[in-house]
Amino acid sequence: MIQEVQEEKKVRSIGMRVFVFLLALLLTFGLGACGEKETPPATDKTAQEESATEVVHLTIDASRYFESDKAKLSKDTVGADEKGFIFDEDFTLEKEQSISDLLFATKVDFVDAGGYISEIGGIGGGTTGEMSGWLYTVNGEMPSVSVNAYMLKAGDEVLFVYSNDGGADAGFTWE
Question: pTM for this one?
Answer without folding.
Answer: 0.69
